[in-house]
Design brief:
The protein is α+β, with helices and mostly antiparallel strands. The protein is built from 4 helices and 8 strands.
């Protein structure tokens, strides 16, 4: 009978501890969720950073997401000091029912290469990026790297030194993650 008040206070302390624990859990859940399921990168950032840094080796981007119906154009990369005519996209192993590739190579008034997600679902993918000094060397590097590609670099820029004076020419080959 002496400790009845003390026992009631213990129950109250336990209830307060449970409320505080639940509040902390609500704060930590979004952080834990981001650690378990990281957010996918933006295609322009992932591809652009790798194009800007590419020193004639094969680089592979981190995973990125292209939403259904979205289009990424080479002209989006002007902010990264990359000539939009110096690289193009290739669908790799993706089907023409998933990715549509646009190759507008009218170099007289610029060009606008593009890739579009034409499937009904968002696509998670990566890209292998290979750069060389001209289209012939790039085609050889693609074959050496054993990458599936649809458009040969020489069909885009021409053979020999007809690569329109770019410092380097690159291909962005889309891949499954």
């Amino acid at each position: 009978m002496i400790n009845q008040r003390g026992q009631a206070f213990s129950v109250f302390e336990l209830m307060i501890a449970a409320i505080v624990a639940i509040a902390i859990l609500f704060v930590l859940l979004p952080i834990i969720n981001d650690l378990i399921t990281p957010r996918l990168g933006d295609p322009v950032i992932e591809i652009g950073n790798n194009l800007a840094l590419n020193t004639y080796n094969k680089k592979t981007t981190s995973e990125f997401k292209i939403e259904s119906g979205a289009t990424v154009r080479s002209s989006y990369f002007k902010d990264k000091t990359i000539d939009p005519c110096s690289f193009y996209f290739d669908r790799g192993r993706f089907s023409d029912k998933q990715i549509d590739i646009g190759i507008d190579d009218d170099f007289s008034d610029g060009c606008d290469f593009s890739m579009s997600n034409i499937s009904s679902n968002d696509l998670t993918l990566k890209a292998a990026i290979i750069c060389e000094t001209n289209a012939d060397a790039l085609e050889s590097s693609l074959n050496t790297a054993k990458l599936d590609f649809e458009y040969a670099p020489t069909s885009v820029w021409g053979s020999g030194d007809e690569y329109k004076g770019f410092d380097k020419v690159c291909v962005v080959v889309l891949q499954y993650p």
